Amino acid sequence: MATIGLIYIGLLGLGVLYALLAGVFGFLSDAVAGIDAHLPGDVHVDIPGADATSSQPITGTLAATFITGFGGGGIVAHYLFGWSLVPGLLTAAGTGIVLAAVAFVALDALFKQTQGGSEYRSDELVGREAEIVTPIPAGGLGEVAYLVRGQRDSASARSTDGSAVGRGEPILIDRVVGGTVYVRRRDPS
User: Fold this and answer.
1) Contact 82, 20 (CB under 8 A)
2) Facing residues of 173 across strands?
3) Which residues pair with 138 in a beta bridge?
4) How far apart are the C-alpha atoms of 127 and 176, rounded to whole Å?
5) In a designed cystine with 170, which of 92, 99, 159, 186 is the match (CB 3.0 to 4.6 A)?
6) Which H, E and C letters describe 28-91, residue by residue?
7) Which three-class secondary structure state does DSSP give residue 100?
8) pTM for this one?
């Protein structure tokens, strides 16, 4: 059956073409990323539960990996082993599933490493020790530094009770309002 062999070749070619185009367009989008002016007509959609850190089992990349694996496995089964239609299709499907599963696990691990970084919620700051960077005058604004998720960060700060707070005083973050943290002196006990 020569037509099934051509289908396998076509699917392998389609998967390789997708990979090449994705690489070229990815490179081009990175090259012009600084030019993006958010022109009128840009559409942004937030889908609950579908953020950058969540793993989606079916993506364009995984579908293309399956198609490439299906075509490649089918070519091997058909032309190299000379298997008939059913064993060839089973081999092609198995190869596609295995390659897509390996790609899923590899991409999931990669994205967890690169996305797990320094982003944090403001409520994670409450109760943390902080260090005065710029003294806080009475009723005024200063700056504090703190450690969160293994990284040092800083923010504008006010004292909770409105008193002045100088460098070296032990303080805790009491609450966060917008980009400003409110601090209080730490109890010596």
Assistant:
1) no
2) 183
3) none
4) 11
5) 186
6) HHHHCHHHCCCCCCCCCCCCCCCCCCCCCCCCHHHHHHHHHHHHHHHHHHHHHCCCCHHHHHHH
7) helix
8) 0.52
Q: If you ran DSSP here, which 8-state letter would residue 159 be given?
A: E
Q: Residue 155 and residue 163: Cα distance in Å, rounded?
A: 18
Contact assessment for residue 167 and residue 189, using Cβ atoms and an 8 Å cutoff: no
Quick: pLDDT tens for 84-137. Answer: 999 999 999 999 999 999 999 988 888 776 655 567 788 889 999 999 999 999
| Structural tokens at position 3 | 């037509």
H or E element that contains 176: strand 171-177
Nearest C-alpha neighbor of 126 from the set 181, 68, 66, 174? 174
- Helix 60-75 with 85-115: angle, nearest 10 deg: 150
70 burial (CB, 10 Å; 0-12 / 13-18 / 19+) is: buried
